[in-house]
Specification:
By secondary structure, the chain is α/β, with parallel strands linked by helices. It has one domain. It is about 40% helix and about 15% strand. The protein has a seven-stranded mixed β-sheet with strand order 1-8-7-2-5-3-4, sandwiched between helices. A two-stranded parallel ribbon has the order 6-9. The radius of gyration is 17 Å and the shape is globular.
Length: about 260
């Protein structure tokens, strides 16, 4: 219930009036049945604009930190994410990728739409970065259609750093569902998983017009953070979730961070 109140009463009307998002390709999103939404990741605002464009409910796998913060703030945060349909996911350790797979598979078996960000963290500079193959494994294991969704302009609405919400127009474009049935029975083949992931990222590049960089965004952020430390700069990374993204290639991100 709270999900729909946020979407149609508390937040949705404000965003539609203030930012006037333009939605294209909505006909590509199935009206029922399980769907994997694969999106580019520019801003914490991504996970708001995409669900607002779809009549159906979208579930993102949120990192467990959002549900375990102590104090009143933590209670409110947990309430908000739980009531808006987000599912906690522990992304730490060697079992993080398996945990994501099991959680996503359960949701998809229930016929839900699951949203994922293959880049694993927000783009540090507006470019599109190499995707992690976790989304490929989920797609191959479940056989569900993968709908690419390209979002443009959210990094201007809510850029990295202190929270801000600017009056900028956003474009949300859904591409035709990607069918990977030709790879049936080839789960756990790392070359196939990489090929599937690269195909998804290529389609996102076409939808958004972003420049593609064949490097993990989290790796770039880590390198930049190291450089700052060497020069004595103690400034924090603009994306606090970067350090929470496992180095494992398979782990996709799912909650805007």
């Amino acid at each position: 219930m709270f999900y729909w109140l946020v979407k149609f009463v508390f937040v949705g009307p404000f965003i539609k009036l203030y930012n006037r998002p333009k939605v294209e390709g909505l006909e590509h999103v199935p009206t029922d049945g399980p769907v994997l939404l694969a999106g580019n990741h520019l801003s914490i605002a991504d996970w708001l604009f995409t669900p607002l464009a779809i009549p159906r409910r979208v579930t993102y796998l949120a990192k467990s930190d959002y549900f375990t913060t102590p104090g009143l703030r933590g209670m409110l945060q947990k309430f908000f994410y739980t009531q808006t349909g987000q599912v906690p996911l522990d992304r730490r350790g060697a079992d993080a990728a398996e945990s994501a797979l099991l959680t996503a598979r359960g949701l998809l078996e229930d016929g839900k739409i699951v949203g994922l960000f293959p880049e694993g963290t927000r783009s540090p500079d507006g470019r599109l970065y190499k995707g992690k193959t976790g989304i490929a494994r989920i797609a191959l294991e479940t056989g569900v259609p993968v709908v690419p969704v390209g979002v443009v302009g959210t990094d201007e609405v809510s850029p990295p750093g202190p929270f801000r919400w600017r009056r900028r127009r956003v474009r949300v474009t859904f591409g035709a569902p990607l069918d990977f049935s030709r790879y049936e029975g080839m789960v756990n083949n790392r070359f196939v998983e990489r090929a599937v992931t690269d195909e998804i990222m290529y389609r996102l590049m076409q939808l958004t017009g972003q420049e593609y960089v064949d490097v993990y965004a989290a790796t770039l952020k880590k390198d930049k953070s190291s450089d700052k430390g060497k020069t004595g700069d103690t400034g924090e990374d603009a994306d606090p979730a970067a350090s929470a993204v496992p180095d494992a290639d398979r782990m996709p991100d799912s909650q805007a961070s």
